[in-house]
Amino acid sequence: MDQTSTLVKHIVEAWTQLQTEQPLVQCITNSVAANYAANVLLAAGASPAMIDNPFEAESFTTISAALSINLGTPTHEQMQAMQISAQTAQRTNTPWVLDPVGYGPVLKWRSDMVDELLQYNPTVIRGNASEISTLAGNQVLSKGVDSTLNSADVYNQAKVLLAHAECIAISGESDFILSKELDAVIQINGGSYLQPKVTATGCALGALIAAYCAVTTPTIATIAAHTHFAIAGKLAFKKAQRMGQFNVAFMDYVHSLNPDLIQQYADIKILEI
Amino acid sequence: MDQTSTLVKHIVEAWTQLQTEQPLVQCITNSVAANYAANVLLAAGASPAMIDNPFEAESFTTISAALSINLGTPTHEQMQAMQISAQTAQRTNTPWVLDPVGYGPVLKWRSDMVDELLQYNPTVIRGNASEISTLAGNQVLSKGVDSTLNSADVYNQAKVLLAHAECIAISGESDFILSKELDAVIQINGGSYLQPKVTATGCALGALIAAYCAVTTPTIATIAAHTHFAIAGKLAFKKAQRMGQFNVAFMDYVHSLNPDLIQQYADIKILEI
Amino acid sequence: MDQTSTLVKHIVEAWTQLQTEQPLVQCITNSVAANYAANVLLAAGASPAMIDNPFEAESFTTISAALSINLGTPTHEQMQAMQISAQTAQRTNTPWVLDPVGYGPVLKWRSDMVDELLQYNPTVIRGNASEISTLAGNQVLSKGVDSTLNSADVYNQAKVLLAHAECIAISGESDFILSKELDAVIQINGGSYLQPKVTATGCALGALIAAYCAVTTPTIATIAAHTHFAIAGKLAFKKAQRMGQFNVAFMDYVHSLNPDLIQQYADIKILEI
């Protein structure tokens, strides 16, 4: 069995485990993604809870199987909750995902918070090419919260971020995942050009990575979540090319993914770092 | 006419009244449910307004026909609004529904607020089996905001809560409604196993109970709202078995319910307490 | 070429320009509309970002091509962000749209803020008939956030508001747009009676006006956004008469509008003021 087939086998196992365990995933996320990310997690097999206040953050992270922190539309109370939950996750060895939405000099308040959250060692950092490149220390002209760079051009820059996390995931036309464990970059193809046209798909992907982290290693979790989305996006686009129907079809396939579809459609390449 | 047929007749009347009056329903709800609950109320015939700040809470509750309070993702400002609006509702005899999302020792901040809100005598308390059981004084291992108990096993425990409210509603595979007025438990069947897979359906149901409370008695309102959802869920599942399409079909049937469908599909049993 | 044909030609040009420029639009909006407005902007061709905290408001407005401010469910932090962003937009000549949701004596906190925001000269003010009439100084019995008046009865009252903005837009069964530039009222027909049944369509329309303002004059932008929605609503209703499917079809047509559809379905009348 070659390395790619082994990865696909692990993805199938992770998906199966997700259905069995239905892990509780705490999401501190933005107002755009809250409903969508919760539905994606439920469709994929996990149990989401959007607990994002500082007064319940510590006790809730303690009972959660994983945590997802997304800085899309932060409030003061959410910011406090993020710090408490990230710290608690580190202390209790709960896997957690950091999604530094809009990281860069224009959005300084959240970017300072992201810098601070790095000390709690996120299990996975995921973002688009602009965010990851800027977080890796490069100067990037971003356009709001959407990327101006290609994921393929950025993954080499992202290596330095492996000092903070087990995996770095860069989403784009192809997704690239840097894995400390494998000492490699995994390229995942699939999806469709319509996917970034549906708001909060990236945010929901971060939450899904967290869900998978509750049932497998960070590397397999990150690859599995991206593959889950890439297949759903590809199949949805076959069925519908307009945004309303594409969105419905995408949720259908996030829900109806299964081992056969994973084996048939997973499109993964292992690259050297 | 037997008791069940009489109830169905009252549900039809309540539904008709809802279309006629289109009552204004104030919802203080969570970030996951805000859009969904508003669409459910509009589809069902009511007029929703998500006014959830403490500075407008009193004046808005005063002009509202009903109030729905949901503690899914509370903020400090929302908590203040909840207190003010609940107090105002009690003072002005405006019916109001309390949905104690996640009630239990892990989520203490909201649970303390729920305890406090009980003094303003909610018209209806609705929740899943774990929440209602815990609120009734039992020790329950909950899993985030989803239930770990069956609704059928809990309704006997819920009797004590009738000290605070006219009706207690427990949603689950079957729904159980304890009515002070009828001195009985009403069991409502329908829906589908996919319904809890769509996030915020419980929260939206709480808002719909409030809407019906604006046009009929608390008991009929609670039964009517649950029947509305049970029929829509059953018919939607006939049409679509995947989450994206199910969600669309569910909203279609919430919208297109009518007296014929109610008479044909209402599945109600009256149990002794 | 008559005046109406000229307008349609300008709408086509504006739509084309929107696809080319994909302008960054900052939205400070409510919890009900956040996801929906973002999807509408993406479907229509723009690039939305829901930056609504006071700490990043100034720097983000500075790089945005347009700004949309909506007072649906304001928080303290959002209110501060609104002031900062409106002031920044005025200073940097960035077009911005004000949507005074629920304006009136019952909702005083937001209404005071709307009065204050007027000093920063919004490019466009849009609302339903009740909101615009009240903002124009009339006493109106509103029902929550929905209108109790007809748009056709109100546009004469709205003239006084042209002291504050380039355009005043009143949505309803027909939409009416007062233009300072044209010294005329533009009536736009289309849509469907189901459109107000989908929550946040008005809020999303405000955001879409802002998007068009980034690529054309305030008058053309306001007419183009209303026409975009009127056509999508009309075509969606042809395809689906229930709320769930209508909502999906509406998003499909917001996404797939094109010059041919604009020329075929635009229904615009120019009235004297």
From TrEMBL, chains A, B, C:
- Source organism: Acinetobacter terrestris
Which gene is the coding source of this polypeptide chain?
thiM
Which Gene3D superfamilies does this entry report, sorted A to Z? 3.40.1190.20
What is the enzyme's class at the highest EC level? transferase
Keywords attached to this Swiss-Prot or TrEMBL record, sorted alphabetically, are: ATP-binding, Kinase, Magnesium, Metal-binding, Nucleotide-binding, Thiamine biosynthesis, Transferase
In this chain, substrate is annotated as bound at 50, 200
Needed cofactors: Mg(2+)
Recorded hits in CDD domains, A to Z, give:
THZ_kinase (cd01170)
Family the entry assigns: Belongs to the Thz kinase family.
In Swiss-Prot or TrEMBL terms, this protein is called: Hydroxyethylthiazole kinase
Q: Which GO terms describe its molecular function?
A: hydroxyethylthiazole kinase activity
Q: Which InterPro entries match?
A: Hyethyz_kinase (IPR000417), Ribokinase-like (IPR029056)
Q: Sum up the protein's function in the record's words.
A: Catalyzes the phosphorylation of the hydroxyl group of 4-methyl-5-beta-hydroxyethylthiazole (THZ).
So what does this thing catalyse?
Answer: 5-(2-hydroxyethyl)-4-methylthiazole + ATP = 4-methyl-5-(2-phosphooxyethyl)-thiazole + ADP + H(+)
What does the record give as its pathway? Answer: Cofactor biosynthesis; thiamine diphosphate biosynthesis; 4-methyl-5-(2-phosphoethyl)-thiazole from 5-(2-hydroxyethyl)-4-methylthiazole: step 1/1
Please name one Pfam family that this protein belongs to: HK
Residues annotated to bind ATP: 126, 171
Task: Write down the EC number.
Answer: 2.7.1.50
